[in-house]
Design brief:
The chain contains 29 helices and 24 strands. By secondary structure, it is an alpha/beta fold. Helix 15 links the parallel strand 13 and strand 14. Bound molecules: adenosine-5'-diphosphate (ADP) and magnesium ion.
């Protein structure tokens, strides 16, 4: 189902059978619309051309040059010919360019040897005196530099340059299409030129509503297609690109808005709050007052849970902002209304933490599973909630019991890991799913859990990874978003310092005496290492930690990185820590050992915990005040920010030491400086994303792993995405089925091919 007859038309009807076959073979494109929408990846400004005297070895260059001579000879060792072409830029066309701000005027014009193996076309076309554009990788042969089998385009025959005066020509940008080894950018350009001549662009349907086009001062669509493929000036393609970029944002946002509308139209069980239920009892015994944000979000959730359309909400809140209480209150409302709630955590450590802390927070409202199972509380079901944990590593008997409690409805809250997703888990009446730390969970997993309820359950996704607004609008565009943007009152500040051992090796010992001071004051210390042992590649067990940007930079090989085992050994010899109970915690331990280490630390039996990033997410030990991160440059910004959020939780000021052996000014140390400079998670995430590549942002959260966005950049085009989202909301709000916007609906269908559907199928 496409947008219009013309766009859906087979390519052969417009560019002929042969060209169509070539395009299909190399680009997989079969329709007029497909090829029209095959936009240049970039444009070469002729001013960016490389002067021959400056060509760098092993780099891809594009240069305009004149053929000085050409000769063809047979190869000695095997069949075939070599055509040697000598080119020069001595006509002044490129020798006077200002490239990258540097002025090459006055440089000696260069010559370059270009060789073609069996270059029949080169032999025929690259005749003495002809000008051509060459593009290829500079290699060295013999003593001099040259190009081997470069792409070339005769400028006098280029459909876009033919018959233009030199000045005009010099200003014309050269479109560069995503090409393949067999099909060059220039061949694509030629075919598209034919297409532009044979298609009646004026009849193409425009998915952007006229009012929006007028407001945005967009080029008419026909003009935009022409100028994106065949611009005469840089301004041309910029204007065309602006239009298509907005169009892309609008189509995407409309798809998401429509999906939101469809989700909202689904029927869920309303879980209205009741006057004297568990939630009121819980609120009465809360030892603190909710922050304004927690109250406001709580009110929103309460209202949405009370409706018979499923809630689909993303709750963002920086580390320590108190998301758990908000989620717990929502769960209690659902339980009051007769439903069950499931809390999905990314790791066993975190599930166990949640289990402990939720039971602690519930206090007398937490009902003991042992008793209820024996029927001792039969008839008293109204006065408490049973919290049940379900993880893969539980002993069989306990696991069976948990499964039974979930299925029978005895368990009001079921907390678990991926184990909750397995087939044999069922619920009596699942009313609410809470997913904690969404970024560790796949979309599919969320959907599996949804399928465990007879009617769509309400859904709350929580994330501490601050997501820039535009990413939230795009990646989580089908979820409504709430933000907790303040920390609970009395939260002590965390001060962060970069400890540079490169310039101050003596500070290594000082870290441990500082730890001792903290412990002597009655507090506890986390020490985080990038590795478990000396022989591993880090602690990247599934669902626990992701490779950091620094891992991808591959700068670790040369240095010996701190590991949990070596640091634990080292600390046992460390005089300033003599007699201090120290324990390791990492992903390769048995689950029971992990849980024990965490429990001992929580109970203050262990004073100093040496771990990998298993403690990164959600761990909540109020008495911990010092966080030491060794080889901190091995972690990403958001990881560091999350780790730091583990201290300063109990009203005691926290300190975070980012220890590094890299020299000041090293690119990887920039991340540490950024983390030390602010505690604002949102500002950091912007910084983080700037230091990463776009694909990593969308890629990680898309099931396909490939960015489906072409012209839109989630970080750069915040304004565009925001405007398009507003427009989409207006359009879908007035016309939910898009009956009156058929071209937009068509463009959405086009967009939602099966691969992309996975991208939207979430929630
Ligand atoms: P996160 O958003 O990182 O998951 P948590 O929900 O774990 O944060 O909350 C962090 C700590 O703050 C917990 O110990 C919690 O009990 C406490 N807390 C939550 N809300 C408040 C509040 N309004 N006032 C004081 N402490 C709070
Ligand atoms: Mg949390």
């Amino acid at each position: 189902m496409g947008m219009s007859a013309e766009l859906d038309l087979g390519l052969e009807r417009r560019i002929g059978k042969r060209s169509a076959a070539v395009i299909e073979k190399h680009l997989g494109i079969t329709t007029v619309g497909g090829l029209l929408n095959y936009f240049p990846r970039r444009y070469l400004d002729r001013g960016e051309l490389t002067p021959i005297s400056e060509v760098p070895l092993d780099e891809d260059v594009t240069l305009i040059a004149r053929v000085v001579s050409s000769s063809t000879r047979s190869m000695r060792a095997r069949r075939g010919t070599i055509t040697d072409v000598v080119i020069s830029d001595d006509d002044g066309q490129t020798g006077l360019r200002v490239v990258g701000g540097r002025d090459y005027r006055g440089k000696v014009p260069g010559t370059l040897k270009v060789s073609f193996f069996n270059g029949y076309r080169a032999k025929a076309e690259l005749l003495q005196g002809r000008r051509a554009l060459f593009s290829g990788k500079v290699t060295r042969f013999g003593g001099s530099l040259g190009l081997t089998n470069p792409d070339f385009l005769l400028l006098d025959e280029d459909p876009f340059t033919k018959g233009r005066d030199p000045e005009q020509l010099a200003a014309m940008p050269i479109p560069v299409y995503p090409a393949t080894a067999k099909l060059t950018s220039w061949s694509i350009q030629k075919v598209i030129a034919t297409l532009l001549e044979t298609v009646d662009l004026g009849t193409l349907p425009d998915p952007v509503p006229a009012a929006v086009s007028v407001r945005e001062k967009f080029l008419p669509m026909a003009e935009a297609y022409r100028l994106i493929h065949a611009p005469e000036t840089p301004k041309d393609w910029q204007r065309a690109r602006d239009r298509f970029r907005f169009q892309e944002a609008l189509v995407l946002q409309s798809a998401l808005a429509r999906r939101r509308a469809q989700l909202a139209a689904e029927e869920a069980t309303a879980r209205r709050s009741v006057p004297d239920g568990l939630l009121s009892a819980f609120d009465r015994q809360l030892p603190f007052t909710l922050t304004a944000g927690q109250s406001a979000v709580g009110k929103t959730l309460s209202e949405e849970l009370g409706q018979d359309a499923p809630m689909n909400r993303l709750l963002q809140g920086d580390v320590g902002s108190g998301k758990t209480i908000v989620a717990l209150r929502a769960m209690l409302q659902v339980i009051d209304a007769g439903g069950q709630a499931a809390l999905l955590a990314p790791t066993e450590v975190l599930a166990a933490q949640h289990y402990e802390s939720i039971r602690r927070t519930l206090g007398s409202l937490s009902r003991d599973p042992m008793l209820s199972g024996d029927g001792l509380l039969a008839g008293l079901g109204g006065n408490g909630v049973q919290v049940t944990m379900l993880t893969g590593s539980m002993p069989t008997a306990a696991r069976k019991r948990a499964l039974l409690d979930a299925a029978s409805g005895t368990a009001g809250i079921v907390i678990g890991t991926h184990a909750l997703l397995s087939e044999n888990v069922s619920f009596h009446d699942l009313g609410l799913i809470v997913v904690d730390e969404q970024h560790r969970f796949g979309v599919e997993q969320r959907d599996v859990l949804r399928s465990k309820a007879s009617k769509p359950p309400h859904l709350l996704v929580m994330t501490a990874t601050p997501i820039p607004r535009t990413v939230a609008m795009t990646v989580f565009g089908d979820l409504e978003t709430s933000v907790l943007d303040e920390l609970p009152a009395g939260r002590a500040p965390i001060s962060t310092h970069v400890v540079g051992l490169f310039e101050n090796p003596g500070w290594a010992g000082r870290i441990w005496s500082r730890s001792r001071e903290e412990i002597d004051a009655g507090h506890q210390v986390y020490v985080v290492c990038p590795r478990i042992g000396t022989d591993d590649d880090g602690d990247f067990s599934p669902g626990e930690a992701e490779p950091s940007p620094a891992d991808l930079e591959g700068d670790g090989a040369a240095r010996e990185l701190a590991s949990v085992t070596t640091i634990v050994e080292h600390l046992q010899q460390e005089p300033s820590l003599a007699g201090i109970p120290v324990a390791p915690l990492h992903g390769r331990q048995e689950p029971a050992a992990k849980t024990a280490a965490m429990a001992d630390f929580t109970a203050n039996r262990i004073k100093l915990l040496v771990s990998t990033t298993v403690i990164e997410v959600g761990v909540d030990v109020h008495n911990a005040t010092l966080m030491v991160i060794l080889d901190a440059d091995r972690f990403g910004i958001s990881q560091l920010h999350q780790l730091r959020g583990r201290v300063g939780r109990g009203g005691l000021p926290g300190t975070c030491l980012l220890v590094t052996t890299l020299e000041p000014g090293h690119p990887s140390r920039r991340r540490l400086d950024a983390v030390a400079s602010t505690t604002d998670g949102f500002q950091l995430s912007q910084e983080d994303l700037k230091l990463r590549r776009e694909g990593d942002i969308l890629g990680a959260s898309q099931s396909g792993g490939r960015s489906t966005l072409r012209l839109l950049r989630v970080l750069e085009h915040e304004d565009i995405i925001a405007r398009a989202r507003q427009d989409a909301q207006d359009i879908v709000g007035h016309d939910p089925s898009l009956e009156r916007h058929p071209w937009l609906a068509g463009a959405i269908d086009e967009y939602l091919n099966p691969e992309k559907e996975a991208f939207l199928e979430r929630g």
